[in-house]
């Protein structure tokens, strides 16, 4: 499918993240309170206002609250209808152009908020290169992958309360750590604070029992970039035997625009080769993966952005649908607004790794960022993710997912 | 403090879980829709109706929705005021008795629902005997306690969506398992389905940064009994390295009555001896433990209830306030309605263990229940928790927390 021309000129420009083909969904404030908005070129179409004006009609009002959850809950037929109507309002030659134009706002200058209310957040570990790298560092190359890894998309429950929108500063956390040279644990600001490059899948249909991989795919509304900030030193001390907890609870940043699954359909990709067959309940149901190019820039305080890694969501071993299907095997109810992180997406080469832990190989080989070595993140660093599915004449972009590291607070428990 | 006499006669009877001293909070339906209710003897006072009638006034209406979250969010001053007013309405000789009486409903016959909306659910592992027992089974007596166990209340995030109220049947889950004799994993109904006897703490004040143990204690609104149903075979295969996930996601059952922290103040207990000192941020801040007697009955299908364990919440090594303080160290935001499970509360003796895993020592020594051996739970078994803080002339009871095991569904993925 080629570029769909919009009467919003910037949407037709090469390299634009938000052509008419995308129709990404956000919540914005351009000075008149929070509204549901649709990204188009360098503009945001005020969807709440379009609905109020009768230019967009979804049966019942779904956009009166500044969150996309109501549309999400409305189901796939409404999602498709919404895309048809928005396309018709914004396409080149749209009869309604003059009526829609007053409801556009410059993206620059608008404040973006979380695009949906996160019900619960689960983080998977579905990237094979990442799991292999981390396992090699911690357990040696011969035991890199956990025994279960090729059989189930392992994951853990995270904290929905810690999910923040791109641009929110992230405060370096304190935590209890015990290094190999420590006789007793210490309470300290994390010295090994890190990012994790992930894709977030947004669940928009509930379930109350096990669902198949195909059913799971239909429950996914869209995707965001997701940075699962991680304190490696806190994690190393706390994670046995119950898994990551406070090391992952400071913040999880998501990009502000939901890219709907429908926008990514032309960029579906086949599953990876399976080293061992998956059991039937997790078997591949189709081309449920996506070809989305990802990169990360790191900008030191007062420095210039430097790209430190490039990878692709095709590096995932388990699709979001497989992650979700596994999530329901026990009967675990899923709800509208559940967010599933993919786990870190690393590629096979050293320059395609999705975390500082891997890029610096546990801190042993710091990378060069603007002339200074970086093993983990320093105060003032800004980490920025970019992602886009790329066609010859357009791209379906996610915008950016960024956060700046603030220094740790003084010891919150000093007397 | 002795028994406070109520004009509701059943509240003054020995052995009653709900004397005037308790004022436990639930959501009930006695045929007129869901309402906020206060347990008094064998009756429920319709607090929603009392507020609507002007007999209970909390500044703004807080009980119009069938959930106690609004009162919880209102803060400690309102919580205390609420208890004063309810006591005044229900005490012997209350001037308002005639006006209140029409708003009482028999507890028997009323349907009880979740008393609050669970924001997020976290499960700790704060019982030393339980951690020692499980560790001994899995790693041997010399390495029973994980290295971090005496230094932090380790825990993991659970699923709020799976929290159900007492009485809700629990369906035996399917899951992927791989036993020691299996060459490859299998997808099967759990054969080692279990209960875990826990105390649940309800967080009712938000935080947005680290809080001290003393501050944490003030954020706790009340307590429920909590059964963290666990599929041990699924857990054994999935839990490395990210912790329990689907093994704990089928259901978590809570008792229907919130016992407010104020009701338990007379039953505060001192911390246990500390084998190693806790770091300052987790140090004991006072008598934050409680003396609450617990027991579990197991009722086989068509059988009679048999008490299979007796223990006490004093067996916890970390208080709920310490659990909560640790939860916030990273800056993790807490919200009104967060639920913290204590972890399994086992005592030091074989007949005080809080799970079948421990009672049957991993299935090796099944216990006798009504003449038949039980290693784990069978279909049709009903597990019932009881809990009460016991004074010479009254008790602060929790009611019961029960669930009956339904057989697994047919293979949900059979083609």
From TrEMBL, chains A, B:
Domain Fumarylacetoacetase N-terminal: 21-115
Record keywords, A-Z: Calcium, Hydrolase, Magnesium, Metal-binding, Phenylalanine catabolism, Tyrosine catabolism
GO molecular function: fumarylacetoacetase activity
InterPro entries associated with the record: Fumarylacetoacetase, Fumarylacetoacetase-like_C, Fumarylacetoacetase_C_sf, Fumarylacetoacetase_N, Fumarylacetoacetase_N_sf
Cofactors required: Mg(2+); Ca(2+)
The Fumarylacetoacetase-like C-terminal domain, residue ranges: 121-404
Pathway assigned in UniProt: Amino-acid degradation; L-phenylalanine degradation; acetoacetate and fumarate from L-phenylalanine: step 6/6
The protein's Enzyme Commission number: 3.7.1.2
Protein name: fumarylacetoacetase
Protein source organism: Roseinatronobacter domitianus
